[in-house]
Amino acid sequence: MTLRTRDPLARARAFQAALIRHLLEHKAPLTLGTTPEPHVTINYAGDRLGSQKIAPIAWTVEEIVLMESVVGKTTHVEHGRWPLRAA
Fold first, then answer.
1. Where are the beta strands (DSSP E) in the chain?
2. Please, which residues have CB within 8 angstroms of residue 51's CB and are 6 or more apart in sequence?
3. CA 66, 69, 70, 76 torsion: positive or negative?
4. Among 19, 46, 56, 66, which is 20 to 30 Å from 29 by CA?
5. Cβ pair 40, 5 in contact under 8 A
């Protein structure tokens, strides 16, 4: 189960494109042809309730974490952390 938005997320998409370009330039292992969708995973099993609208949720992002999701393993490998504000 994930939280997603229907808004265009222009800034998130621009960051995503820049990150993918950077990773490709540095020969990072990527699955080409996939289009990652910005989302927040809440539960891997899901609730089987389907899509539902909910009231807006807001939070402050303090860092970006680059995680590799190992398909089929429910395992994640952290590749880096970048704070968005100086300490």
1. 2-3, 40-41, 63-70, 75-83
2. none
3. positive
4. 46
5. no
- For residue 52, the one-letter residue type is Q
pLDDT tens by residue, 35-85: 666 667 777 676 777 777 778 878 788 888 888 878 788 888 898 888 888
- Assigned token pair, 59: 């939070």
Give the whole-angstrom CA distance, residue 4 versus residue 37. 8
The identity of residue 51, as a single letter, is S
What is the rounded distance in angstroms from the CA atom of residue 26 to the CA atom of residue 9? 26
**Could you tell me the pLDDT band of residue 2, with boundaries at 50, 70 and 90?**
low
**Residue 17, pLDDT above cutoff 80:** yes
How many CA atoms, within 13 angstroms, populate the side-chain half-sphere of residue 46? 5
Identify the CA nearest to 67 among candidates 47, 32, 40, 33: 40
